[in-house]
Recover the amino acids of this structure.
């Protein structure tokens, strides 16, 4: 089955359109991953700072460890 030049040309145009769409999708996904990476880094820094602050709290501040907490009144 042979195709004419026009059919081949249309097929190439269709493939180029699909490729352009895929490239755009890949770029969009890459941008989204980059934004998520930035958010994760920011959250990791916040957790680190909170952990450092928690270590600086004196033991006599009235903050109990989970195993030291009394049972809720409904128990």
């Amino acid at each position: 089955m042979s195709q004419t030049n026009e059919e081949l040309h249309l097929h190439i145009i269709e493939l180029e359109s699909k490729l352009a769409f895929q490239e755009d999708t890949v770029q969009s996904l890459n941008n989204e991953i980059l934004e998520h990476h930035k958010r994760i880094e920011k959250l990791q820094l916040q957790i680190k700072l909170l952990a450092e602050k928690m270590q600086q709290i004196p033991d006599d501040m009235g903050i109990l460890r989970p195993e030291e907490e009394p049972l809720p009144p409904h128990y």
Summary: The radius of gyration is 29 Å. Residues 5-56 form the longest helix (52 residues). The mean pLDDT is 89. Helices lie at 5-56.
